[in-house]
Design a protein that fits this description.
This protein is an alpha/beta fold. It has three domains: about 80 residues, 3-Layer(aba) Sandwich (Udp-n-acetylmuramoylalanyl-d-glutamate--2,6- Diaminopimelate Ligase, Chain: A, domain 1), CATH 3.40.1390.10; about 210 residues, UDP-N-acetylmuramoyl-L-alanine:D-glutamate ligase (3-Layer(aba) Sandwich), CATH 3.40.1190.10; about 140 residues, Alpha-Beta Complex (Protein-Tyrosine Phosphatase, Chain A). About 35% of the residues lie in helices and about 20% in strands. It has 17 helices and 22 strands. The chain has a nine-stranded mixed sheet, sandwiched between helices. Strands 17-18-22-19-20-21 form a six-stranded mixed sheet, sandwiched between helices. Helix 10 links the parallel strand 12 and strand 13. Helix 4 packs parallel to helix 11, helix 4 packs across helix 12 and helix 14 packs across helix 15.
């Protein structure tokens, strides 16, 4: 962490000290009292399973230099009371980003955020010592914690930003003040709360407000909603596309196999031949966004090519796991209709018997039936041999697959993961390729673990 004086923390949060001294220096931040060591700031957060305020005394006894809390507590060491602990951490993180003063790539979107983040990080890291979110640290707690992990050696940052509602992207992008902002697409995720794709765009486009005026916005040029609003953006805009041949950077000569996809990125005076070490034509657009970022940062084409050919994907996103008897496509971290369709297309590339284990897609609201039902056609189109659905909403995928011509004997629907285990044991064969895909709330990594342990 970039060290901060307690006086600087007070300035950042705009509050006064409740008890203790202002002369100290904070060298790290934690929300877990068990991890407190001398010099740390302990942030007391009211969580679902525990209230950090109950552990303030323990944190101070372990040497916490300072405590931030949002409840009245007995004086105990250096205490700063704020209106909201998580919001205060965001303000402190902004102060650190201002100290760092490095170029920042901020990215958001409905689908493909993390893969694009990983690709962009690989590219930017070719020239700069780069900070990025780890795992799913992309919310109003995760982004500040990511910033706190930076030290003086950081030269650039690639920060993914997620959201559930209006205002969140505004608050997150305010923390990091992007030099380059990316929107991957406007899909169906969070439509239950926001009501329409136009509203999803409005929520995602909050990133533009906090992007530097002299900065650059990079957009998916195949996304009709993004293109409809392109001329409203005040910063320089670069578009990328597969279908949109008028985009600034386009992909040509796309060739996809079951293990990789290759293409040529053309535009902005460059032609770069790229082979991605992951399957799926949908990843071409993600890669083009990373290519555009690299060109904005004036990274040579050879370095961009090398970065994308060797980048690492975050765990549980299109992990190809070869077991003794089966191959698992472990893509169960999260799901949206578009990403399920893309995953089915990857499965469809295999010559082996193809099994899709699909769970519910969350947060679709009144669009849920239509979105799930629409995926049945993708199941049939990609030649899936066995479909197992888990959950209430995913039954509509099964219903649609049957109505599109799939043999009912090859379709099984259950309500829970536990009910799926005996089905898997009785129906999976040696040599099968098994896709496991659902929204995070379904926790279908349990299915992937079951497959690894039994096949």
């Amino acid at each position: 962490m970039i060290p901060l004086k307690i006086s600087e923390i007070l300035d950042a949060t705009g509050v006064k000290l409740i008890s203790g001294e202002v002369g100290g220096m904070v060298t790290d931040v934690t929300t877990d009292s068990r991890k407190v060591v001398p010099g740390m700031l302990f942030a007391a957060i009211c969580g679902e399973n525990a209230d950090g305020h109950d552990y303030i005394k323990s944190a101070v006894e372990k040497g916490a230099e300072c405590v931030i809390c949002e409840k009245d507590v007995a004086p105990c060491g250096t205490i700063i009371k704020v209106e909201n602990t998580i919001a205060a951490l965001g303000k402190i993180a902004r102060a650190i980003m201002r100290k760092l003063c490095v170029p920042v790539v901020g990215l958001t979107g409905s689908v493909g955020k993390t893969t694009t983040r990983d690709m962009t990080y690989a590219v930017v890291s070719k020239m700069f010592n780069t900070l990025k979110n780890q795992g799913n640290f992309n919310n109003e707690l995760g982004v500040p914690l990511t910033v706190f992990s930076a030290d003086e050696s950081v030269e650039a940052a690639v920060i993914e930003m997620g959201m559930d509602n209006f205002g969140e992207i505004d608050r997150l992008s305010y923390i990091v003040n992007p030099t380059v902002s990316i929107i991957t697409n406007i899909g169906m995720s969070h439509i239950e709360r926001l009501g329409s794709q136009e509203n999803i765009y409005k929520a995602k486009s909050e990133i533009f407000k906090n992007t530097k005026h002299s900065g650059t916005v990079i957009l998916n040029g195949d996304d009709k909603i993004l293109m409809a609003h392109k001329d409203e953006i005040t910063q320089k805009v670069i578009t990328v596309g597969v279908e949109n041949i008028d985009a600034d950077i386009v992909a040509k000569n796309i060739e996809a196999t079951k293990s990789c996809v290759s293409f040529t990125a053309c535009g902005m005076g460059k032609e770069i031949d790229i082979t991605l070490p992951v399957p799926g034509e949908h990843n071409v657009l993600n890669a083009l966004l990373a290519v555009a970022t690299g060109l904005v940062f004036e990274i040579p084409g050879k370095e961009i090519k090398d970065a994308l050919q060797n980048f690492s994907m975050t765990h549980m996103r299109m992990d190809i796991i070869k077991c003794k008897k089966v191959t698992i496509i472990n893509d169960c971290y999260n799901a949206a209709p578009a990403s399920v369709a893309a995953a089915l297309a990857v499965l469809g590339k295999y010559d082996n018997r193809k099994v899709a284990v699909l769970g519910d897609i969350a947060a679709l609201g009144s669009y849920s039936y239509k979105a799930h039902y629409g995926l049945g056609a993708d199941v049939v189109k990609n030649g899936i041999d066995l479909l197992i659905t888990i959950g209430t909403h995913s039954r509509h995928i099964a219903e649609s697959a049957y109505e599109h011509g799939m043999d009912g004997a090859n379709i099984v629907s259950v309500d829970t993961v536990d009910e799926a285990y005996p089905v898997i044991m009785s129906s999976i064969r040696e040599g099968d390729v098994v896709l496991v895909k659902a929204s995070r709330v379904m926790a279908l990594e349990r299915v992937s673990a079951f497959l690894k342990n039994n096949f």
